[in-house]
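Running log. JK asked me to keep both predictions on one page so they can be read side by side. First protein, sequence followed by its tokens:
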Amino acid sequence: MRSLRALATTVFLLGVVASGVGGGVLGSSGCGADVDRVASRAQALCLPGDMGGDIGCGCTLNSQCTRFDEDTRLIVCDVPEGAAAGTCTDCLALGSGKRVVGCACASDSDCATGLACNGRTCQLKRARGEYCFRDSDCGTDMLGAMRCLPTKSWCGPLENDYYCDFNSDCLSGKCQSGLCIPGGTSTPCRSDGDCRAPLVCSTVYGTCIDKQPDGKPCTRNAECQNQCNSFSGVCLQGKNGVICTPSNPDGDCESTLVCTDCGGSYTCRAPGGPCG
């Protein structure tokens, strides 16, 4: 007799749990499907009939709002930035200029401050390197205001090692071989255009350098503070008496001097001046 009574009691309790009475696991919920009633109360989630349906219900996902529609997006789960949960929100009730992330929009003016309309919904301004459609999609960070790069559709300009098409795509102002490069001292280069002024590209080292003092190796005047002497291959001021090469188109002598034949030996001299 006791075993039959105990069995009956067990069956009854299982039936209560299955029916959802007293907060069973199959109890109905307002915003989230298959969330039990007790758990819903603990998480401040609404239940059917509470607060006019699902508006104001606690949520973490749009799908937990029973009236959320992917096409219209007039009801969304508004989770404030940095928060773990939010509430089901009526976008239209917020009014123009106040719609939150995920709400339907037609223009930026529909969205709250700091958001932009991406053509369909209000979204946070894009960060540097993120996809964009137009300049207004991009935000501002500690490096400054951003714009939508025309050939990449990324918010930029970008940091070193990002893909680029133009110098203006890069924060350094230097795009080399399709990548943003620093353009600073010791940066690999192929021409002066790869270096940030006043740096130049050393044809000896293949890197960006400051203009070099006398005695440093060179192949052209642009690499030197003075002239690049074609005879010695080092930077050297082309003052009076310095050996020079008349065929050097870059010029070995100071601007007021000329490379003069002094009995088979060419030296920098004043025009018409004596060799002695």
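And the second, directly underneath as requested:
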Amino acid sequence: MVRSASPTLPRIRVLATGGTIAGAETKGARGYKAAAFSVDALIAAVPQVGELARLDVEQVAAIGSQDMDEATWRKLAARTSAALADADLAGVVITHGTDTMEETAFFLNLVVRSEKPVVLVGAMRPATAISADGPMNLFNAVAVAAHAEAHGRGVLVVANDEIHFAREIAKTNTTQVGTFRATARGLAGLVNAGRIHFYSAPVRKHTAQSEFSLDGGSALPRVDIIYAHVGTGRELIDAAVKAGARGLVIAGVGDGNLGATALAAAAEAAKSGVAVVRSSRTGGGVVERNIEIDDDRHGFIVADELNPQKARVLLMLGLTRTRDARELQEMFFTY
């Protein structure tokens, strides 16, 4: 559906997937149902967006983002790419739940081949809540997608008056509207009631420069995350390999470390041809090669700055290109 507005305004496609931004309370202020409202209802609640852009809207899915899956990722990537191929379209806004927004954003950052803006937006409070944050977030997301300086910055996330790079963003709080943080390289910018202030550009490859593609339609390789803790055994690592995992991401303690028993199991997995990436459960910092663990000897890959969930996304896509640990490592230094 096309929303009427001045023909001189930029044209933006809004792709909706559901999430809390489209949620409705079911038990007062203590419970809600995600994806209760359609994209039409969301747009109708923020008529001011008509001052920013001409909107096309499409309901791609209606789920809470805890139910996001590969099939929906593929559909979303395809619809985003098709929209951006339209010469008359300035950019895309995607409404999405916050639980897995960082993973979807990073996935799209690696597979959408366009310099045009792609902006994900969600909310921490459902649409019917007191002081819902969704309407202003949506207004600001449209403003960012319609802005000329958003071009070439990769996939962005807008929330709580902040603009984040897909690679840098992480959800850090279960309920607060300021849940998103830039974990390594800082904010992409700020947006205050549609007034935009961009900061530095991303430094890693993304979107139009990416080597990854979903052409062919084959399912992405299975990659599992193993969370390290005091006394981690080998059982979960062995079970993941037996279940067919072609890759493992270790959410390690500290600098991506594992105790001796789990380390031995991970080394055996790598020797058998499973790609093993060491990441960290800490939520920040760089996992470097060959500090406390001899990555060269074990054939491990380090996640560099990526948290475990984003390391999984990159490893799944990387394994569609190669199984060589050295080549996969270079990808983690590149993207």
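Observation for JK regarding the second prediction: The two ends are 35 Å apart (CA to CA).
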